[in-house]
Every structure is written in structure tokens, then in C-alpha cells.
Amino acid sequence: MENTIKGATQVISINQLLEHWQGHRRLTRKVIAIFPEDELFTYSIGGMRPFADMVMELLGIAEPGLREIVTGQTAQLNEHFDHGNSKAKLLESWDSATQQLKELWAQMEGTDFQKQIVSFGQFPGTVQSALFYFMDNEIHHRGQGYVYLRSLGIEPPMFYDRS
Amino acid sequence: MENTIKGATQVISINQLLEHWQGHRRLTRKVIAIFPEDELFTYSIGGMRPFADMVMELLGIAEPGLREIVTGQTAQLNEHFDHGNSKAKLLESWDSATQQLKELWAQMEGTDFQKQIVSFGQFPGTVQSALFYFMDNEIHHRGQGYVYLRSLGIEPPMFYDRS
């Protein structure tokens, strides 16, 4: 059983961790999709970034960060790309990263999640702490997107809906 | 080594998961502490709950939810208690729950994290999916608290500061 190591249960298995992440990514995608296109790139509260900028940060972390873990090649942190203020382009980048995560994850079998690494050449931790940081950071910023949506009079997707 | 099961590494060990959770709890505590006391109980954006109400939800989930996992006794979901609009009282409840989590966690050794459970008698999942849901929900609402703080002109604690 993939959920066990030599008969003892894992807290969370490698495959469960990917599914957990992808579930969060599906929810974040819904939040991007429900944003009015103008406000996605312009709307701000309290001097914070528009939600699209937060999404670019998430895009800059997830796939490059996992690729770095899988290949051992230091990744560059790049939180910007030319989206042309297009929601479709942002969603396309999101879906592309989701697919790449899936492909990269297929190489994670046998990975030592306790291995010390330095993400993006600057953030020391372990494979597991880096991955959880990537996910936690997505949840954090998505929660902020919820407030933006509510203040725009738009009901966000249910937090527990990971379909 | 606690990070291994019979020689193979865990994705995240039982002790690491508690430390991960407690790190998030330390950050959430900072967010509660930095809120102006009035606004903690009254300030709202887009018709959402004041941050204190979100904190009461988190208090209603974490310790009762873990106690249910440890004891097998169905917990009641109670997201309200008499805080008297006192930040000190909210922080006291937070610290009490943090301590109880630590004590309950000492009984988690040997727990089957893949066991099917029904949290609060209504949310089906596994021990691991329930625990991650509790943590993710905290990160989600805390992120919303960050927006409240920014819109009040207050700089929130750094997201990566779990000290």
C-alpha cells in the first residue's frame, strides 16, 4: 500500500500530498475564474497587490519550486510574466503549472522529504517544509482573494470545495 | 529516528506535523495580538465576520477536533464563547488551546493517520485529512485577517515568521 512504509502508516503519503495540493489548486483556480477580469488586475484593499499579482507569485513558486526539488537545479524566483491583463492567460498559466506539477510529481517516488535544501537559492529548509510552505502560501493569498471578492459583492467558492 | 518508519523517511513525521501546526498557531496569535481591540470584534469588510468571530471558529475546531481524534468521542462544533469583547480573553483561550493541543498530541504516537473518521459527527475523512483541514482553515482565515489589518493601516506580521 502506498499509504504505508514497510507496514506502518504514513501521516500523509506522497500521492496524498500531491492530491492535497492539487485540490487546493482547483479551489484557487475557481477563485481566479470568478474574479471580474478588470478587478483581477486592478482591485486592491489597504495598498495590497491585486489578486493577479498574488497569483503570479504563486505561479512563480509552485512549478519552479517543485522542479528545483526534483532536478536539484537552483530555480530563479520570478513573480512576473506578461499576462496582458488577460484572465484567460492567467488561467492558462495556472493549468499549465498544474499539469507540470503532476508530471514532476511522478519523479518524487523515493524522494527523501527530510533532505535539507535551499529553495530558490535563498530559503533553507527540508523538502517537506518547502512543499508545505508553497501550499500554505497559496492558501494564505487565496484567503485574501476571498476578501477582495466579498468586498466586490461576489460570493467566493466554498472553502471545502476541492472538486 | 522519529522521521523514519522502519528506515524509510516519512513525508512529514507526527512530531513535525505538530510543530508545523504550532508554528501556524504562533503566527495567528501574533495577528490577534496586533489587532486594535475594538476592531478585532467589530471590523468587517464585505459583510464578512469580524476577525474575532473567525478566531472563535478556529478555537471551536482545533482542540475539540484533536480531542475527538484522540479519544474517539464525538465532539460538538461550538464556534462561540463569552469573550466579553476582550482581546486578553481571546488570547487566553488561544494559549489554553495551544497547550491542550500539545498535551493531546502526546497521545498521537501509534495513531493510524489513514483511519476513516467523521469529524464533529458530520465531516467524513481521515485523521490526516481532518488535521490538514483544521490547519488550512486557520491559514485561510488568518489571511483574511491580514487584509483587515492592512485596510486598517496596520502592518501584519511576516507570513514566514513562525517564532
Automatic annotation (TrEMBL), chains A, B:
<comment type="similarity">
    <text>Belongs to the DinB family.</text>
</comment>
<dbReference type="InterPro" id="IPR007837">
    <property type="entry name" value="DinB"/>
</dbReference>
<keyword id="KW-0479">Metal-binding</keyword>
<protein>
    <submittedName>
        <fullName>DinB family protein</fullName>
    </submittedName>
</protein>
<dbReference type="Pfam" id="PF05163">
    <property type="entry name" value="DinB"/>
</dbReference>
<dbReference type="InterPro" id="IPR034660">
    <property type="entry name" value="DinB/YfiT-like"/>
</dbReference>
